[in-house]
Amino acid sequence: MENILLVVKMVLPVLIMLFLGYYCRVKKIINQQGLLGIKAVITNILIPVVLFNAFYKAEYNLNGFIIFIIIYCCNALGLGFGYLTKRLVGNNAKLMPFLLSGYEVGMLGYALFTLLAGVENIHYLATVDLGQTLFVYTIYVMMLTATTGGKPTAKGLLMGMVKNSAFIGAIIGILVGATGLGAVILSSPVGEIFNQTLIFITAPTSAMILIIVGYEISFRKELMKPVFKTIGLRLFSVLILLIASSEIIFHIMPFNKTLFTAILLFFSLPATFIIPLYADIEGENEYVSTTLSMNTLVTIAIFFALAFYVIS
Description:
By secondary structure, the chain is mainly α. The chain is 77% helix and 0% strand. The chain has 14 helices and no strands.
């Protein structure tokens, strides 16, 4: 009974916020303009702080570098698998390969992992996230831009990263963590104030993101076939990548349950939500948004199972 209550404690807030998001759309409490405002606050303020808070606490050692290489390669393999199998979804699904690579850690993963392991353990997910963050803002964005008719250039890619608040937050966090400055700050007299301020700023992130997810869930019948095919292919590929990467990581380093939980959650996440920001192909936008929404529901279902694993 006690274990069930612990799972309910982690799962119930997620369900409530998803329902509230859906309720806000049905009752028109929030319109599209209001939703864009919430997204702007999350994207430009909360997520950069969340990423900074995670990355300045991440591990920058040999083990962290190994995880970085493995996760970077997993993203590349996922994208390659997408190109090999996109005809199974349809000849017009140009963006399908990008739905099989990238993981929405910033807008969803950290929110869910905090419920599972607490904000004090967020550095475990940050260590896993580092490889995919750099992959997404380099190879992934470059190929996505090319697919949608753009001409990616090194200058354009660099400017896109420099102007992206989330990427800036991550890079500053990496610099502070890798140089040891983060440890110096935390051990100083202002360390506790600094830490509590970050916690206070990032506290609403989980709730606000889940409201958006609930608001944007769509169930249009004509989209379900390509959407389910895409999600099925993603689940198949990430399962193989999860098994292979876990075997390599824990063959090299001792098993750590919290790190393994971070890896499990990471591979359960949907593709990155930045796809609609860089892609604008007529007829595919709704397919992409619906796939991301439905895949998020799959992630929530897996989250329930992870809640039992964490307390076991």
